[in-house]
Amino acid sequence: MMPDDNLILSALGDVVTNRTRRTRETAAMRRMVRETRLSADNLIYPMFVVEGEDIKQEISSMPGQYQLSVDRLVADCEEIAALDIPGVILFGIPEHKDDIASGAYAEEGIIQNAVRALKEAYPDLCVITDVCLCEYMDHGHCGVIEGEKVLNDPTLELLDQTAMSHAEAGADIIAPSDMMDGRVGSIRAALDASGFAQTPIMAYSSKFSSAFYGPFREAAESAPAFGDRSSYQMDPANAREAMREIAFDIEEGADIVMVKPALVYLDVIARAREITDLPVAAYNVSGEFAMLAAACRNGWLDPERAFMETLTSIRRAGADIILTYFAKDAARRLRGDKATPLSWM
Ligand code: PBG
């Protein structure tokens, strides 16, 4: 518009009818009209457990994240509890791998030992266990294989055993992440039949075959030895199919449904929120963490703003629960601690 036009318009009165800036004027007003809130209550912190003692080994592609032996895991969870983060999700890295994932359901398995130790030290901390076989299989796939095929139904039996052994060790929530068909129903029945009718299932319902799990596979030593996971994990192009996956898991007895990854699938989170009244969780995965940390460490993004904006976007899309490697840092900032350096910077 030319300066002349401006003069004419202002002579006619106020032409701007929609002044959304009014409520952005002060911090107090912005607080009042804020639509989305992030709280420590929404956060779950993922942790990696290894065999041995006194081990705290940083994961090179995930600054500030560690492989921890059970004793160090227990020590580190003191801070989690103090920060009022309600829960952790555990991933096990066994010393021994085979083709029946025996470490996944061993009574003295890495996760079983970790859960017992954590529940003894922090009875109020919600201990969630990831139920998957890939970390325990010598070939790194999430199911039993025949040649290069990942078999569905024979895998269910092993998943059931794994879930029951986690529940027996004291796990508060069972979180199957393998993407075999029918696993939620199968695990639900197994838990019910073994005295764990009260143990909830948080299903990785729409888990996509994603490049963003790269750093996790280094951390969990679970990269597949051949092929990829696209015969069981979802095609990144499919959002309608994601809704079917979620509907099936709900039918089969899921108590919480999850979308994973989070950032590249915010639309899927929003659609999940629309189709169910169950709690929706989103997994802000290792690659999403790593790329943000890398850009911040290069000085390309403002870390303090970037990670909180990221978590807010996942909440805004509709997630009630966020599984994130940023959990501790977010909890600190949310309680007004601006001094503790970010763990990944
Ligand atoms: C196990 C599992 C994976 C993740 C969570 N559970 C890896 C995979 O499917 O390959 C990824 C988590 C992350 O990237 O942070 N199947």
Word description of this protein:
By secondary structure, the protein is an alpha/beta fold. It has twelve helices and twelve strands. Strands 1, 2, 3, 4, 5, 8, 9, 10, 11 and 12 form a ten-stranded mixed β-sheet that branches. A two-stranded antiparallel ribbon has the order 6-7. β10, α9 and β11 form a beta-alpha-beta unit. It binds ligand PBG. The site of ligand PBG has 11 residues, from α7.
Helix and strand layout, with pairings?
Elements: H1 3-11, H2 27-33, E1 43-50, E2 56-59, E3 62-69, H3 70-82, E4 87-93, H4 110-121, E5 126-131, E6 145-146, E7 149-150, H5 153-169, E8 173-176, H6 183-193, E9 202-207, H7 214-220, H8 240-252, E10 256-260, H9 266-275, E11 280-284, H10 286-297, H11 303-317, E12 321-324, H12 327-334
Parallel strand pairs: 1-3, 1-4, 1-12, 4-5, 5-8, 9-10, 10-11, 11-12
Antiparallel strand pairs: 2-3, 6-7
The structure holds ligand PBG.
Residues 130, 132, 134, 142, 177, 213, 216-217, 222, 285-286 line the site of ligand PBG.
Describe, in short, the structure shown.
Helix content is 39%, strand content 18%. The chain is α/β, with parallel strands linked by helices and 345 residues long.
